[in-house]
Specification:
about 450 residues; mainly alpha; Growth Hormone, Chain: A; about 0% strand; disordered N terminus; cell membrane; MFS transporter; MFS_trans_sf; MFS; membrane
Length: about 450
Protein backbone atom coordinates (compact mmCIF):
# COMPACT_ATOMS: atom_id res chain seq x y z
CA UNK A 1 0.00 0.00 0.00
CA UNK A 2 1.37 3.35 -0.97
CA UNK A 3 0.64 6.49 0.94
CA UNK A 4 -1.38 8.01 -1.86
CA UNK A 5 -4.98 8.98 -1.30
CA UNK A 6 -6.28 7.94 -4.71
CA UNK A 7 -9.62 6.18 -4.44
CA UNK A 8 -10.10 2.56 -5.31
CA UNK A 9 -12.72 3.44 -7.90
CA UNK A 10 -13.36 6.71 -9.65
CA UNK A 11 -17.02 6.69 -8.75
CA UNK A 12 -16.30 5.73 -5.17
CA UNK A 13 -14.18 8.75 -4.39
CA UNK A 14 -17.05 11.05 -3.55
CA UNK A 15 -18.86 9.95 -0.44
CA UNK A 16 -22.44 11.05 0.28
CA UNK A 17 -23.15 13.89 2.66
CA UNK A 18 -23.43 11.53 5.63
CA UNK A 19 -19.69 11.05 5.44
CA UNK A 20 -18.57 14.57 4.66
CA UNK A 21 -18.69 16.43 7.97
CA UNK A 22 -15.02 16.06 8.79
CA UNK A 23 -12.61 18.22 10.72
CA UNK A 24 -10.79 20.66 8.46
CA UNK A 25 -7.45 19.52 9.82
CA UNK A 26 -8.15 15.98 8.56
CA UNK A 27 -8.47 17.27 4.99
CA UNK A 28 -5.12 19.03 5.24
CA UNK A 29 -3.13 16.07 6.60
CA UNK A 30 -1.91 13.36 4.20
CA UNK A 31 -2.95 9.90 5.25
CA UNK A 32 0.59 8.73 5.97
CA UNK A 33 1.04 11.71 8.35
CA UNK A 34 -2.32 11.31 10.08
CA UNK A 35 -1.00 10.03 13.40
CA UNK A 36 -4.43 9.16 14.79
CA UNK A 37 -5.32 6.92 11.86
CA UNK A 38 -1.87 5.34 11.81
CA UNK A 39 -1.97 4.73 15.57
CA UNK A 40 -5.34 3.01 15.22
CA UNK A 41 -3.96 1.03 12.29
CA UNK A 42 -0.90 -0.16 14.23
CA UNK A 43 -2.94 -1.16 17.28
CA UNK A 44 -5.52 -2.97 15.21
CA UNK A 45 -2.85 -4.72 13.15
CA UNK A 46 -1.25 -5.97 16.36
CA UNK A 47 -4.59 -7.26 17.66
CA UNK A 48 -5.46 -8.94 14.38
CA UNK A 49 -2.05 -10.60 14.30
CA UNK A 50 -2.83 -12.00 17.74
CA UNK A 51 -6.19 -13.26 16.49
CA UNK A 52 -4.58 -15.12 13.61
CA UNK A 53 -1.85 -16.52 15.86
CA UNK A 54 -4.46 -18.08 18.15
CA UNK A 55 -6.69 -19.11 15.24
CA UNK A 56 -4.14 -21.81 14.49
CA UNK A 57 -3.33 -22.47 18.17
CA UNK A 58 -6.92 -23.16 19.29
CA UNK A 59 -7.62 -26.04 16.86
CA UNK A 60 -4.15 -27.48 17.44
CA UNK A 61 -4.73 -27.46 21.21
CA UNK A 62 -8.22 -28.93 20.94
CA UNK A 63 -7.11 -31.65 18.52
CA UNK A 64 -4.20 -32.45 20.87
CA UNK A 65 -6.46 -32.61 23.95
CA UNK A 66 -9.51 -34.36 22.47
CA UNK A 67 -8.41 -35.78 19.12
CA UNK A 68 -11.82 -34.77 17.73
CA UNK A 69 -12.29 -32.45 14.73
CA UNK A 70 -15.95 -32.18 15.72
CA UNK A 71 -14.94 -30.54 19.01
CA UNK A 72 -12.60 -28.21 17.10
CA UNK A 73 -15.53 -27.32 14.85
CA UNK A 74 -17.72 -26.78 17.91
CA UNK A 75 -15.18 -24.28 19.24
CA UNK A 76 -15.33 -22.37 15.97
CA UNK A 77 -19.12 -22.47 16.08
CA UNK A 78 -19.24 -21.11 19.64
CA UNK A 79 -16.83 -18.28 18.89
CA UNK A 80 -18.55 -17.29 15.65
CA UNK A 81 -22.03 -17.59 17.17
CA UNK A 82 -21.03 -15.22 19.98
CA UNK A 83 -19.84 -12.71 17.37
CA UNK A 84 -23.11 -12.96 15.44
CA UNK A 85 -25.33 -12.72 18.53
CA UNK A 86 -23.52 -9.62 19.77
CA UNK A 87 -23.54 -7.88 16.38
CA UNK A 88 -26.79 -5.94 16.74
CA UNK A 89 -26.18 -4.95 20.40
CA UNK A 90 -22.73 -3.73 19.33
CA UNK A 91 -24.29 -1.50 16.70
CA UNK A 92 -26.71 -0.12 19.26
CA UNK A 93 -23.86 0.52 21.67
CA UNK A 94 -21.63 2.44 19.26
CA UNK A 95 -24.58 4.56 18.10
CA UNK A 96 -25.67 5.46 21.63
CA UNK A 97 -22.48 5.64 23.70
CA UNK A 98 -18.97 6.97 23.40
CA UNK A 99 -17.24 4.81 20.81
CA UNK A 100 -13.85 5.08 22.42
CA UNK A 101 -15.24 3.74 25.71
CA UNK A 102 -16.94 0.87 23.89
CA UNK A 103 -13.73 -0.12 22.13
CA UNK A 104 -11.59 0.12 25.27
CA UNK A 105 -14.03 -2.00 27.31
CA UNK A 106 -14.33 -4.70 24.65
CA UNK A 107 -10.58 -4.80 24.10
CA UNK A 108 -10.03 -5.23 27.84
CA UNK A 109 -12.29 -8.29 27.74
CA UNK A 110 -10.14 -9.81 24.99
CA UNK A 111 -6.94 -9.11 26.94
CA UNK A 112 -8.17 -10.76 30.15
CA UNK A 113 -9.83 -13.73 28.45
CA UNK A 114 -6.80 -14.62 26.33
CA UNK A 115 -4.34 -14.07 29.18
CA UNK A 116 -6.35 -16.55 31.27
CA UNK A 117 -5.54 -19.31 28.75
CA UNK A 118 -1.82 -18.58 28.93
CA UNK A 119 -2.03 -18.62 32.73
CA UNK A 120 -3.92 -21.91 32.71
CA UNK A 121 -1.25 -23.48 30.51
CA UNK A 122 1.40 -22.28 32.96
CA UNK A 123 -0.56 -23.98 35.77
CA UNK A 124 -1.31 -27.09 33.72
CA UNK A 125 -5.06 -26.61 34.09
CA UNK A 126 -6.40 -26.00 30.56
CA UNK A 127 -9.69 -27.70 29.69
CA UNK A 128 -11.87 -27.70 26.55
CA UNK A 129 -14.63 -26.01 28.55
CA UNK A 130 -12.37 -23.08 29.42
CA UNK A 131 -11.34 -22.75 25.79
CA UNK A 132 -15.01 -22.65 24.74
CA UNK A 133 -15.76 -19.92 27.29
CA UNK A 134 -12.75 -17.86 26.21
CA UNK A 135 -13.70 -18.34 22.57
CA UNK A 136 -17.20 -17.04 23.34
CA UNK A 137 -15.84 -13.97 25.18
CA UNK A 138 -13.35 -13.10 22.46
CA UNK A 139 -15.99 -13.65 19.79
CA UNK A 140 -18.54 -11.51 21.64
CA UNK A 141 -16.05 -8.64 21.99
CA UNK A 142 -15.17 -8.63 18.30
CA UNK A 143 -18.19 -6.72 16.88
CA UNK A 144 -17.89 -4.05 19.59
CA UNK A 145 -14.21 -3.52 18.78
CA UNK A 146 -14.72 -3.67 15.03
CA UNK A 147 -17.71 -1.34 14.83
CA UNK A 148 -16.24 1.25 17.20
CA UNK A 149 -12.93 1.23 15.39
CA UNK A 150 -14.44 1.54 11.91
CA UNK A 151 -16.54 4.52 12.95
CA UNK A 152 -13.58 6.10 14.71
CA UNK A 153 -11.57 5.81 11.49
CA UNK A 154 -14.27 7.85 9.75
CA UNK A 155 -13.90 10.61 12.31
CA UNK A 156 -10.14 10.96 11.89
CA UNK A 157 -9.87 10.55 8.09
CA UNK A 158 -11.02 13.06 5.46
CA UNK A 159 -13.83 11.89 3.14
CA UNK A 160 -11.60 11.90 0.07
CA UNK A 161 -9.14 9.61 1.91
CA UNK A 162 -11.68 7.02 3.05
CA UNK A 163 -11.14 4.58 0.18
CA UNK A 164 -7.37 4.79 0.59
CA UNK A 165 -7.75 4.31 4.36
CA UNK A 166 -10.02 1.29 3.88
CA UNK A 167 -7.60 -0.19 1.36
CA UNK A 168 -4.82 0.24 3.92
CA UNK A 169 -7.10 -1.56 6.35
CA UNK A 170 -7.28 -4.47 3.91
CA UNK A 171 -3.49 -4.53 3.92
CA UNK A 172 -3.66 -4.53 7.73
CA UNK A 173 -5.68 -7.74 7.56
CA UNK A 174 -3.33 -9.34 5.08
CA UNK A 175 -0.21 -8.37 7.03
CA UNK A 176 -1.73 -9.82 10.19
CA UNK A 177 -2.77 -12.97 8.39
CA UNK A 178 0.68 -13.25 6.87
CA UNK A 179 2.47 -12.94 10.21
CA UNK A 180 -0.05 -14.50 12.61
CA UNK A 181 -0.38 -18.15 11.53
CA UNK A 182 3.34 -18.96 11.13
CA UNK A 183 4.08 -17.06 14.32
CA UNK A 184 1.30 -18.92 16.13
CA UNK A 185 2.54 -22.25 14.80
CA UNK A 186 6.14 -21.45 15.77
CA UNK A 187 5.19 -20.27 19.25
CA UNK A 188 2.95 -23.31 19.74
CA UNK A 189 5.86 -25.56 18.82
CA UNK A 190 7.99 -23.89 21.51
CA UNK A 191 5.30 -23.85 24.20
CA UNK A 192 1.52 -24.11 24.09
CA UNK A 193 1.07 -21.04 26.26
CA UNK A 194 3.11 -18.70 24.04
CA UNK A 195 0.54 -18.03 21.27
CA UNK A 196 -2.01 -17.00 23.89
CA UNK A 197 0.45 -14.83 25.79
CA UNK A 198 1.41 -13.12 22.55
CA UNK A 199 -2.23 -12.56 21.65
CA UNK A 200 -2.97 -11.00 25.06
CA UNK A 201 -0.09 -8.54 24.59
CA UNK A 202 -1.31 -7.73 21.07
CA UNK A 203 -4.82 -6.99 22.35
CA UNK A 204 -3.28 -4.78 25.02
CA UNK A 205 -1.50 -2.74 22.32
CA UNK A 206 -4.81 -2.23 20.54
CA UNK A 207 -6.39 -1.15 23.83
CA UNK A 208 -3.57 1.37 24.35
CA UNK A 209 -4.01 2.80 20.85
CA UNK A 210 -7.73 3.34 21.53
CA UNK A 211 -6.91 5.08 24.82
CA UNK A 212 -4.63 7.67 23.24
CA UNK A 213 -6.93 8.55 20.32
CA UNK A 214 -9.47 11.31 20.75
CA UNK A 215 -11.71 12.32 17.88
CA UNK A 216 -12.80 15.81 16.89
CA UNK A 217 -16.47 14.85 16.81
CA UNK A 218 -19.09 13.77 19.27
CA UNK A 219 -20.90 10.54 19.84
CA UNK A 220 -22.95 11.02 16.67
CA UNK A 221 -20.48 12.24 14.12
CA UNK A 222 -22.66 14.37 11.90
CA UNK A 223 -26.04 14.44 13.62
CA UNK A 224 -25.52 18.03 14.66
CA UNK A 225 -24.27 19.04 11.23
CA UNK A 226 -27.28 17.42 9.57
CA UNK A 227 -29.66 19.16 11.94
CA UNK A 228 -27.90 22.51 11.33
CA UNK A 229 -28.41 22.02 7.59
CA UNK A 230 -32.11 21.37 8.15
CA UNK A 231 -31.78 17.86 6.72
CA UNK A 232 -35.13 16.11 6.96
CA UNK A 233 -33.36 12.90 7.87
CA UNK A 234 -31.46 14.49 10.74
CA UNK A 235 -32.48 14.09 14.33
CA UNK A 236 -34.35 16.98 15.93
CA UNK A 237 -33.32 15.89 19.39
CA UNK A 238 -30.72 17.86 21.35
CA UNK A 239 -27.23 17.02 20.16
CA UNK A 240 -26.16 15.28 23.33
CA UNK A 241 -29.41 13.38 23.93
CA UNK A 242 -28.44 9.71 23.74
CA UNK A 243 -32.00 8.62 24.32
CA UNK A 244 -33.07 9.97 20.93
CA UNK A 245 -33.39 7.00 18.59
CA UNK A 246 -34.30 6.84 14.90
CA UNK A 247 -37.19 4.57 13.93
CA UNK A 248 -36.40 0.89 14.25
CA UNK A 249 -34.29 0.97 17.41
CA UNK A 250 -32.05 -2.08 17.59
CA UNK A 251 -33.21 -3.25 14.15
CA UNK A 252 -32.90 0.12 12.38
CA UNK A 253 -29.88 -1.08 10.42
CA UNK A 254 -31.58 -4.27 9.23
CA UNK A 255 -34.71 -2.36 8.24
CA UNK A 256 -32.71 0.20 6.26
CA UNK A 257 -30.75 -2.58 4.57
CA UNK A 258 -33.59 -4.95 3.81
CA UNK A 259 -35.65 -2.34 1.94
CA UNK A 260 -33.09 -2.35 -0.87
CA UNK A 261 -33.30 -5.52 -2.96
CA UNK A 262 -29.82 -5.07 -4.39
CA UNK A 263 -28.26 -4.83 -0.94
CA UNK A 264 -30.33 -7.81 0.17
CA UNK A 265 -28.81 -9.86 -2.63
CA UNK A 266 -25.29 -8.67 -1.73
CA UNK A 267 -25.67 -9.66 1.91
CA UNK A 268 -27.26 -13.05 1.15
CA UNK A 269 -24.50 -13.92 -1.30
CA UNK A 270 -21.83 -12.93 1.20
CA UNK A 271 -23.61 -15.10 3.78
CA UNK A 272 -22.94 -18.07 1.51
CA UNK A 273 -19.36 -16.94 0.94
CA UNK A 274 -18.74 -16.79 4.69
CA UNK A 275 -20.35 -20.19 5.22
CA UNK A 276 -17.94 -21.73 2.72
CA UNK A 277 -14.90 -19.53 3.27
CA UNK A 278 -14.67 -19.10 7.05
CA UNK A 279 -13.95 -22.78 7.80
CA UNK A 280 -11.26 -23.20 5.11
CA UNK A 281 -8.52 -22.60 7.67
CA UNK A 282 -9.88 -25.38 9.88
CA UNK A 283 -10.10 -27.67 6.85
CA UNK A 284 -6.49 -26.90 5.95
CA UNK A 285 -5.28 -27.50 9.53
CA UNK A 286 -7.18 -30.80 9.68
CA UNK A 287 -5.87 -32.11 6.36
CA UNK A 288 -2.26 -31.09 6.95
CA UNK A 289 -2.30 -32.47 10.50
CA UNK A 290 -3.58 -35.80 9.13
CA UNK A 291 -0.72 -35.74 6.62
CA UNK A 292 1.74 -35.39 9.50
CA UNK A 293 2.86 -31.84 8.68
CA UNK A 294 4.66 -30.06 11.56
CA UNK A 295 2.89 -27.15 13.22
CA UNK A 296 5.24 -24.54 11.74
CA UNK A 297 4.47 -25.73 8.20
CA UNK A 298 0.73 -25.67 8.93
CA UNK A 299 1.04 -22.05 9.96
CA UNK A 300 3.16 -21.33 6.89
CA UNK A 301 0.50 -22.85 4.62
CA UNK A 302 -2.18 -20.60 6.11
CA UNK A 303 -0.15 -17.53 5.15
CA UNK A 304 -1.18 -18.21 1.56
CA UNK A 305 -4.42 -16.40 2.40
CA UNK A 306 -2.50 -13.38 3.64
CA UNK A 307 -0.31 -13.14 0.55
CA UNK A 308 -3.43 -13.40 -1.57
CA UNK A 309 -5.05 -10.59 0.41
CA UNK A 310 -1.99 -8.37 -0.03
CA UNK A 311 -1.98 -9.01 -3.77
CA UNK A 312 -5.72 -8.43 -3.88
CA UNK A 313 -5.40 -5.04 -2.19
CA UNK A 314 -3.37 -3.91 -5.17
CA UNK A 315 -6.22 -4.92 -7.48
CA UNK A 316 -8.98 -2.94 -5.75
CA UNK A 317 -8.69 0.20 -7.85
CA UNK A 318 -8.44 -1.67 -11.15
CA UNK A 319 -11.31 -4.05 -10.45
CA UNK A 320 -13.62 -1.30 -9.24
CA UNK A 321 -12.96 0.74 -12.37
CA UNK A 322 -13.47 -2.10 -14.81
CA UNK A 323 -16.48 -3.92 -13.36
CA UNK A 324 -19.89 -2.99 -12.01
CA UNK A 325 -20.23 -3.98 -8.33
CA UNK A 326 -22.69 -6.85 -8.87
CA UNK A 327 -20.67 -8.34 -11.72
CA UNK A 328 -17.48 -8.10 -9.66
CA UNK A 329 -19.12 -9.74 -6.66
CA UNK A 330 -20.55 -12.63 -8.70
CA UNK A 331 -17.22 -13.21 -10.45
CA UNK A 332 -15.26 -13.31 -7.19
CA UNK A 333 -17.70 -15.63 -5.41
CA UNK A 334 -18.04 -17.88 -8.46
CA UNK A 335 -14.27 -18.34 -8.58
CA UNK A 336 -14.34 -19.34 -4.91
CA UNK A 337 -16.47 -22.39 -5.79
CA UNK A 338 -13.67 -23.79 -7.95
CA UNK A 339 -11.01 -22.97 -5.38
CA UNK A 340 -12.87 -24.71 -2.54
CA UNK A 341 -13.17 -27.80 -4.75
CA UNK A 342 -9.46 -27.60 -5.52
CA UNK A 343 -8.55 -27.33 -1.83
CA UNK A 344 -10.21 -30.71 -1.31
CA UNK A 345 -7.94 -32.31 -3.90
CA UNK A 346 -4.45 -30.92 -3.29
CA UNK A 347 -1.94 -32.21 -0.72
CA UNK A 348 1.06 -30.70 1.04
CA UNK A 349 1.62 -27.28 2.66
CA UNK A 350 2.78 -25.51 -0.51
CA UNK A 351 -0.18 -26.63 -2.60
CA UNK A 352 -2.60 -25.67 0.19
CA UNK A 353 -0.93 -22.26 0.48
CA UNK A 354 -1.30 -21.68 -3.26
CA UNK A 355 -5.02 -22.46 -3.23
CA UNK A 356 -5.58 -20.27 -0.16
CA UNK A 357 -3.74 -17.50 -2.02
CA UNK A 358 -6.34 -17.69 -4.75
CA UNK A 359 -9.28 -17.64 -2.34
CA UNK A 360 -8.25 -14.22 -1.01
CA UNK A 361 -7.40 -12.35 -4.21
CA UNK A 362 -10.88 -10.87 -4.61
CA UNK A 363 -11.71 -10.33 -0.95
CA UNK A 364 -10.23 -6.81 -0.56
CA UNK A 365 -12.30 -5.61 -3.53
CA UNK A 366 -15.45 -7.02 -1.92
CA UNK A 367 -14.65 -5.39 1.42
CA UNK A 368 -14.23 -1.94 -0.10
CA UNK A 369 -17.29 -2.60 -2.28
CA UNK A 370 -19.35 -3.07 0.88
CA UNK A 371 -18.23 0.30 2.19
CA UNK A 372 -19.06 2.06 -1.06
CA UNK A 373 -22.47 0.44 -1.51
CA UNK A 374 -23.67 0.43 2.08
CA UNK A 375 -21.74 2.16 4.81
CA UNK A 376 -21.37 5.52 3.04
CA UNK A 377 -25.03 5.66 2.12
CA UNK A 378 -26.59 5.88 5.57
CA UNK A 379 -26.71 8.69 8.17
CA UNK A 380 -24.33 8.50 11.07
CA UNK A 381 -26.97 7.97 13.75
CA UNK A 382 -27.80 4.54 12.28
CA UNK A 383 -24.42 3.82 10.71
CA UNK A 384 -23.23 1.66 13.61
CA UNK A 385 -26.39 -0.43 13.49
CA UNK A 386 -26.28 -0.71 9.70
CA UNK A 387 -22.64 -1.76 9.81
CA UNK A 388 -23.22 -4.42 12.45
CA UNK A 389 -26.47 -5.53 10.78
CA UNK A 390 -24.56 -6.27 7.60
CA UNK A 391 -21.81 -8.03 9.49
CA UNK A 392 -24.35 -9.98 11.55
CA UNK A 393 -26.34 -11.17 8.57
CA UNK A 394 -23.20 -12.08 6.66
CA UNK A 395 -21.66 -13.52 9.80
CA UNK A 396 -24.48 -16.00 10.31
CA UNK A 397 -22.69 -18.13 7.76
CA UNK A 398 -19.56 -18.36 9.90
CA UNK A 399 -20.89 -20.47 12.82
CA UNK A 400 -23.05 -22.54 10.48
CA UNK A 401 -20.14 -23.20 8.14
CA UNK A 402 -17.58 -23.82 10.87
CA UNK A 403 -19.80 -26.06 12.99
CA UNK A 404 -21.04 -27.94 9.94
CA UNK A 405 -17.52 -28.44 8.62
CA UNK A 406 -16.39 -29.91 11.94
CA UNK A 407 -19.09 -32.58 11.65
CA UNK A 408 -18.32 -33.16 7.98
CA UNK A 409 -14.61 -33.58 8.74
CA UNK A 410 -15.51 -36.08 11.44
CA UNK A 411 -17.69 -38.25 9.21
CA UNK A 412 -16.85 -37.43 5.58
CA UNK A 413 -13.13 -36.60 5.73
CA UNK A 414 -11.38 -33.54 4.36
CA UNK A 415 -12.13 -34.03 0.66
CA UNK A 416 -15.80 -34.89 1.13
CA UNK A 417 -16.33 -31.96 3.48
CA UNK A 418 -14.89 -29.48 1.01
CA UNK A 419 -17.02 -30.89 -1.80
CA UNK A 420 -20.12 -30.14 0.27
CA UNK A 421 -18.90 -26.59 1.01
CA UNK A 422 -18.33 -25.98 -2.69
CA UNK A 423 -21.83 -27.21 -3.51
CA UNK A 424 -23.38 -24.88 -0.90
CA UNK A 425 -21.47 -21.91 -2.30
CA UNK A 426 -22.45 -22.83 -5.87
CA UNK A 427 -26.14 -22.79 -4.87
CA UNK A 428 -25.81 -19.35 -3.32
CA UNK A 429 -23.99 -18.00 -6.37
CA UNK A 430 -26.63 -19.40 -8.74
CA UNK A 431 -29.41 -17.76 -6.72
CA UNK A 432 -27.63 -14.40 -6.66
CA UNK A 433 -26.93 -14.51 -10.40
CA UNK A 434 -30.70 -14.65 -11.01
CA UNK A 435 -31.31 -11.40 -9.11
CA UNK A 436 -31.58 -8.62 -11.74
CA UNK A 437 -30.99 -5.90 -9.19
CA UNK A 438 -27.58 -7.31 -8.37
CA UNK A 439 -26.43 -7.80 -11.95
CA UNK A 440 -27.41 -4.26 -12.93
CA UNK A 441 -26.12 -2.50 -9.78
CA UNK A 442 -23.82 0.45 -10.38
CA UNK A 443 -21.44 2.40 -8.21
CA UNK A 444 -23.26 5.21 -6.37
CA UNK A 445 -22.90 8.74 -7.70
CA UNK A 446 -21.73 11.62 -5.54
Amino acid sequence: MTDTTAPAASSASAAPSASTAMPSVASAVPLHRNWRFQTLWIGSTAALTGVFATDIAYPLVILAITGSPAVAGLFGFVQAAATVLCGLPAGQAVDRFDRRTVQVTAEAVRVLATASVALSFALGAVTPVQLMVVGALVGAAQPFVGAARMLTVRSVVAPEQLTAALTQDEIRGSVAELAGPPLGGLLYGLSRLLPFGFSAVAFALSLLSALVIRTDRGVHADRGDRADRGDAAGSTAPRGDRRAEPDGGLFAGILALWRDRTLRAVVVLLFFLNAAGAPLGLAAVFRLTREGAPSWSVGLALTGSAVGGLAGAGLVRTLHRRFRPGVLLLAVVGSEVLLVLLLGLVTGPWAVALVLFGTMLGVPSISVLLDVLIFRQVPDEVRGRTLTSVMTMMGLGVPLGTGGLGLLLQYAGGTGALMVLAAVLACGTAWAAMQPGLRSARWPAA
